[in-house]
């Protein structure tokens, strides 16, 4: 009895539905947008824009980039031999922070977290200086702060050579240095992963018949490798670092480089309204 009853109810409901032609003539459906009907489907998506390679940094920035990349390689060797970690790259420190927290090593987690925090503060400090003053003044102030932090780290190492908390000061200084590099030239000189990707893209484009300049990435990569080789071959001096002021010497090199190059860099960040939302300058990222 249930099946025939359901069949009769369905037939009665179907009898009440309007005819398809009357349904199409309904005023509400006739007022619907034509783009939603089957006869006029939605417009196709816009064509995909072809990527445009960013312009290369000016030739006057090349010695500045080479020097920063070379010192970055030396700094990595020196910091790892002294502290067992890098003060110039924060990826490993972030991993060590999380791993230490997972292993309940609170002292290690605090140390690595402090290094990351100081690096972020140093990077942000230069951005604040660059927004509120001229580019020349911002780089000059960064040079003075870098020299002070490197010298203070050297003094603390002489007083307490077995402690590693001095590296936190270097992390703040390297935040300033890397900010100067990325915000003034648009090129990252402390890491090579992005440059390897750019070289791979340039090789693929060359095979495809497109000419793309990869000189900045190749310059940074070669200078960085040369700095690592120089620091590694100087391992003898690193073993007697208690007698040689290597940290302060590296600070003098960075300070001299920043001070001499402060008048040759690009316009202040506050005047670059077209890249206000970029992570890096237009040499590295294209803003949409």
Question: Overview of this structure, please?
Answer:
The chain crosses the membrane at residues 64-88, 109-126, 138-159, 168-192, 212-232, 244-261. The chain has 288 residues and is mainly alpha-helical. It has twelve helices and no strands. It has helices at residues 2-16, 20-24, 27-30, 62-83, 91-102, 106-132, 135-159, 167-185, 193-207, 215-233, 235-239, 246-261. Helix 5 runs antiparallel to helix 6. The model is unreliable at 6-10, 47-55 and 266-288 (pLDDT under 50).
Which key terms come to mind for this protein?
about 290 residues; mainly alpha; 12 helices; globular; disordered C terminus
Concise summary:
Pfam families: DUF1275. This protein is an all-alpha fold and 288 residues long.
* Strand and helix order: HHHHHHHHHHHH
Provide a count of the helices. 12
Largest sheet: none
Report the sheet-strand fraction: under 5%
Number of strands: 0
The general outline is globular
Distance between the termini: 67 Å
Extract low-pLDDT stretches: 6-10, 47-55, 266-288
Please identify the structural class as seen in this structure: mainly alpha
Mean pLDDT: 75
What's the alpha carbon Rg, rounded to whole Å?
A: 30 Å
Transmembrane segments: 64-88, 109-126, 138-159, 168-192, 212-232, 244-261
Protein name: DUF1275 domain-containing protein
Keywords: Membrane, Signal, Transmembrane, Transmembrane helix
Signal peptide: 1-15
